Amino acid sequence: MSQKFQANNSCLIGIISDTHGRLPHGVTEAFKGVDLIIHAGDIGEPDILTSLEKIAPTIAVRGNMDFGPWSEQLGAQEIIEVSHTRLLVLHDVYRLALNSQDARPDVVISGHTHRPLQEDNEGVLYINPGSAGYPKFGQPATVARLLIKEQSRQAEIIELAL
């Protein structure tokens, strides 16, 4: 599915994943002032999306642990265009399969691993916000923010207070 999000000269995006039904209070502070929230799957409960919508418009994809009627309306992948920047959102980056006919994304957003990542690979920015609700491997609970301003993209990982 493809969506366009209208933004002026800049857009601040909150990125979250792997909440597994838990939304720490620190998310509200971390996402203060964002224009859009992207949830990269393993949401856990529909109430998580309702809470995020109170902060900013929210777009989500289904993760491998999202079950039930509420999750069936979510796609496995979303393409979002923001200020001439193409974002590809999916839960598990290892399932990413682009063919030569696909328009190349500028940013790939994923979750699943519960490990935060921010990496540029051949001009594509890969962001995994880590897990906000169920951190593993000794990692803290984290989210990310992405600032898109004209042709520049700046991402940061934010550690949450639990």
Give a nutshell description of this structure.
This protein is mainly beta and 162 residues long. 10% of the residues lie in helices and 38% in strands. The longest helix is centred in the N-terminal third of the chain and has 8 residues.
Task: Set down the secondary structure blueprint.
Layout lengths: L1 E4 L4 E7 L9 H5 L5 E4 L6 H8 L4 E3 L8 H4 L4 E6 L2 E6 L16 E3 L6 E6 L2 E6 L12 E8 L2 E8 L3
Parallel strand pairs: 1-5, 2-3, 3-4, 6-7, 7-9
Antiparallel strand pairs: 2-10, 5-6, 8-9, 10-11
Characterization of this structure:
With 162 residues, the protein is mainly beta. It has a single domain, classed as Purple Acid Phosphatase, chain A, domain 2 (4-Layer Sandwich), CATH 3.60.21. Helices cover 10% and strands 38% of the residues. The protein contains three helices and eleven strands, in the order ββαβαβαβββββββ. It has helices at residues 26-30, 46-53, 69-72, and strands spanning 2-5, 10-16, 36-39, 58-60, 77-82, 85-90, 107-109, 116-121, 124-129, 142-149, 152-159. The strands form two sheets. The protein has a six-stranded mixed beta sheet, with no helix packed on it. The chain has a five-stranded mixed beta sheet with strand order 4-3-2-10-11, with helices on one face. The termini are far apart. The mean pLDDT is 91.
